[in-house]
């Protein structure tokens, strides 16, 4: 995976840690989505990187790190990779903590035709 993608993912995570405002996170999200769309690298490399984001450290919940859900929902709204959808369906099960289920549901909503939650991003706000 390119250094640009790694750096941009880190920029999203840093912006999300520093602010709860979607406007602070949106510029690196736009760059990341563009990189994912235009890259000639194998898709599995990106999937591995995204899966690594959803894998918690010791004592952490999946999808709990600020910026991870934002990366998934913003990018998958357009890309709609089925592998990510399948991973979120698996996390939206009674076997997971309710907070993980809710985060997975947020990501799954982007696969619907309408996404009211997208209004937090200027890119996806309805006119």
List the defining traits of the structure above.
6 helices, 0% strand, single chain, mainly alpha, 127 residues
How is this structure best described in words?
- With 127 residues, the chain is mostly helical.
- 62% of the residues lie in helices and 0% in strands.
- It has six helices and no strands.
- The chain starts with a helix and ends in an 18-residue tail after the last helix.
- The model has no long low-confidence stretch (mean pLDDT 91).
Can you give me a brief rundown of this structure?
The protein is mainly α and 127 residues long.
Q: Quote the beta fraction.
A: under 5%
Envelope shape: globular
Q: Can you count the helices? A: 6
Class by helix and strand content?
mainly alpha
Let me know the largest β-sheet: none
Rounded to the nearest angstrom, the distance between the terminal CA atoms is: 36 Å
What percent of the residues sit in helical stretches (DSSP H or I)? 55-70%
**Low-pLDDT residue spans:** none
**Topology order in helix (H) and strand (E) letters:** HHHHHH
Number of strands: 0
- Round the mean pLDDT to the nearest integer and report it: 91
Taking all Cα atoms into account, the compactness measure Rg is 14 Å
């Amino acid at each position: 995976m390119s250094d640009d993608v790694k750096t941009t993912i880190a920029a999203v995570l840093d912006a999300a840690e520093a602010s709860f405002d979607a406007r602070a996170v949106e510029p690196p999200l736009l760059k990341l989505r563009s990189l994912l769309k235009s890259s000639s690298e194998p898709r599995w490399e990106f999937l591995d990187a995204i899966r690594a984001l959803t894998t918690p450290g010791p004592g952490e919940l999946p999808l709990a790190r600020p910026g991870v859900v934002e990366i998934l929902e913003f990018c998958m709204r357009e890309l709609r990779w089925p592998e990510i959808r399948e991973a979120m369906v698996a996390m939206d099960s009674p076997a997971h903590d309710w907070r993980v289920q809710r985060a997975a549901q947020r990501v799954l909503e982007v696969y619907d035709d309408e996404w009211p939650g997208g209004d937090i991003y200027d890119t996806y706000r309805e006119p």
